[in-house]
């Protein structure tokens, strides 16, 4: 237990050291603006990928409507800072909460569906949100909202990202996370063991939506402008690519996948028409040569906080390959 | 211990269980035999709450559980070990067992592990192994062990011998008897009527959703009707 906690703090220290180094490089001007916005995008994408991984990878519910939740958070927080002068951080959090409420509302009816049907329903949800935004005058219709204050800084995005990773990773390693894993492995058996499968599916969906909403808010306050088009199904697909590339079910994998895809995205900026082709080729190669993802099922070596969960954790750690 | 009275269960338009009544007494092994589609698995699913009866009542330990949730039913000690083993394939043996104790408070976890491992020494040898890589017999042991981790008062076993080699079938049946001797009441669904009748105290014969025969297992095993229909001689 002690050891696990110290591992947890070691992870935090490494993350903080990374933060400090980047912060110094940013303030001294070693990193230019392109690198800076790439770093912000990495943070946002890590949040999106890690939260989608909780739904798709851990709980095994194939959802491809993540951009929908992202847009709910983005629009909510942008309206709050633009029209109501709500403090930035609070606006992001409210954006996340509103997205989470959508998560519950969408999750309750759709999570009765399985596999392909759930994928179609969540895809439909994402598109509905987009069409509604497109046709709402108040949020600017097709031209979206612009002039959003660019308040997302490296510091803010870093700590939101760290918070997301720590919280979701702790959830995965708790009894609740185990219940979600059991649902992925075998839903009927999970139910026969007394796990409330609907409840846990909705919980996973809601937590995923919460962080997707926050990520949406942060990205809106990074790039000044949001349009309904930036949250189309290609965006959902992009997040899914990150998760699958990194390894479905692995938090560390989702982080690696998000970083990888963001780098690809940034460096292919000058050849946008090639981007989707390269995504596809990378995915195909991945499925052929490493079907379980870059990191497979590797669990993040982060230990965890708290002692109640630490007990159940012993067996996880020792079984990690 | 368990009293089922006149339940009717439907799969959509299909009337799967028709006015079915059975009784299981404390300490017994009761077996349900019958052909495919007779409603045996449906009955177990209804008892554990995975399906809801349209009419009729189910009473467990003197309390009605007819419309309770699966979680509430499992908590009261009626545990279903579903057909086809259904182990959590990507988890280790140990993690599978832990999930069996999901609704327990964790105080007796160590003792429960010990009890299951002493019942199934093979599982102890393989406790770190992924469940999906176990043999069929070992997976069946794991599924049973997992159910036992939940402190069953009444254990519902659905086709535990399915797809196993004859020698393993013997082992599994021996284990069922041991579990029963240790104080757990067992309701057993089996295709292997011959073996099931050998270890059971009482039996029900199901045909197209109805109980067509019931009685002492040994009597049924001797009856000409059963011999002709299910035992093949």
UniProtKB/TrEMBL annotation, chain A:
Localization terms from the record: Cell membrane
Record-linked InterPro entries: ABC_transp_permease, LivM-like
Topology in the lipid bilayer: Multi-pass membrane protein
GO cellular component: plasma membrane
Transmembrane segments: 7-26, 38-55, 88-108, 115-133, 153-172, 202-227, 239-265, 277-295
Primary localization: membrane
Keyword Mitochondrion: no
One example GO MF annotation: branched-chain amino acid transmembrane transporter activity
Keywords carried by this UniProt record: Cell membrane, Membrane, Transmembrane, Transmembrane helix
Protein name per the record: Amino acid/amide ABC transporter membrane protein 2, HAAT family
Source species of the chain: Paenibacillus typhae
From TrEMBL, chain B:
MF annotations from Gene Ontology: ATP binding; ATP hydrolysis activity; branched-chain amino acid transmembrane transporter activity
Domain ABC transporter: 2-233
Recorded coiled-coil stretches: none
Biological processes per GO annotation: L-amino acid transport
Record key words, sorted: Amino-acid transport, ATP-binding, Nucleotide-binding, Transport
Top-rank taxon: Bacteria
Family, similarity comment: Belongs to the ABC transporter superfamily.
The protein's name: Amino acid/amide ABC transporter ATP-binding protein 2, HAAT family
């Amino acid at each position: 237990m002690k050891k696990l906690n110290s591992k947890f703090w070691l992870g935090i220290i490494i993350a903080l050291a990374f933060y400090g180094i980047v912060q110094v490089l940013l303030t001294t001007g070693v990193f230019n603006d392109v690198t800076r916005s790439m770093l912000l995008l990495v943070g946002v994408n890590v949040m999106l990928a890690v939260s989608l991984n909780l739904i798709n990878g851990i709980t095994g519910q194939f959802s491809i409507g993540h951009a929908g939740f992202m847009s709910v958070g983005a629009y909510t927080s942008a309206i709050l800072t633009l029209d109501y002068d709500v403090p930035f951080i609070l606006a992001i959090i409210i954006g996340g909460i509103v997205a989470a409420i959508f998560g519950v509302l969408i999750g309750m009816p759709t999570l009765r569906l399985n596999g392909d049907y759930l994928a179609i329903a969540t895809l439909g949800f994402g598109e509905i949100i987009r069409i509604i935004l497109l046709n709402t005058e108040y949020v600017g219709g097709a031209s979206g909202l612009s002039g959003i204050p660019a308040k997302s800084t490296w510091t803010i995005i870093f700590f939101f990202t760290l918070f997301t990773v720590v919280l979701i990773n702790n959830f995965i390693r708790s009894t609740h996370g185990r219940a979600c894993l059991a649902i992925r492995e075998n839903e009927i058996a999970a139910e026969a063991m007394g796990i409330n499968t609907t409840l846990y599916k909705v919980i996973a969906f809601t937590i995923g939506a919460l962080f997707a909403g926050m990520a949406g808010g942060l990205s809106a306050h990074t790039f000044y402008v949001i349009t309904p088009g930036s949250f189309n199904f290609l965006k959902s697909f992009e997040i899914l690519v990150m998760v699958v590339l990194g390894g479905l079910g692995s938090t560390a994998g989702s982080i690696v996948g998000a970083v990888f895809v963001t780098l690809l995205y940034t460096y292919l900026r000058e050849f946008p028409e090639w981007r989707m082709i390269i995504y596809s080729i990378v995915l195909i190669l991945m499925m052929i040569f490493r079907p379980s993802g870059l990191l497979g099922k590797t669990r993040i070596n982060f230990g965890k906080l708290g002692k109640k969960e630490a007990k159940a954790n012993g067996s996880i750690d020792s079984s990690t390959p | 211990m368990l009293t089922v009275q006149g339940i009717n269960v439907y799969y959509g338009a299909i009337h799967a269980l028709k006015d079915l009544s059975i009784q299981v007494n404390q300490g017994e092994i009761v077996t349900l035999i019958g052909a495919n589609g007779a409603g045996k698995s449906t009955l177990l699913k209804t008892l554990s709450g995975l399906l809801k009866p349209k009419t009729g009542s189910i009473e467990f330990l003197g309390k009605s559980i007819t419309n309770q949730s699966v979680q509430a039913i499992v908590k009261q000690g009626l545990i279903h070990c579903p057909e086809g083993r259904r182990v959590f394939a990507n988890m280790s043996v140990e993690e599978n067992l832990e999930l069996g104790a999901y609704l327990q408070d964790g105080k007796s976890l160590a003792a429960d592990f010990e009890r299951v491992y002493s019942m199934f020494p093979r599982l102890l040898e393989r406790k770190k192994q992924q469940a999906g890589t176990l043999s069929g017999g070992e997976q069946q042991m794991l599924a049973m062990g997992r159910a036992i981790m939940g402190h069953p008062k009444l254990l519902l076993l659905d086709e535990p011998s399915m797809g196993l080699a004859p020698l393993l079938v013997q082992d599994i049946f021996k284990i069922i008897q041991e579990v029963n001797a240790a104080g757990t009441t067992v309701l057993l669904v089996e295709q292997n009527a011959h073996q099931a009748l050998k270890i059971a105290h009482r039996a029900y014969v199901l045909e197209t959703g109805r109980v067509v025969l019931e009685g002492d297992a040994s009597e049924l095993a001797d009856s000409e009707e059963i011999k002709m229909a299910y035992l093949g001689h």
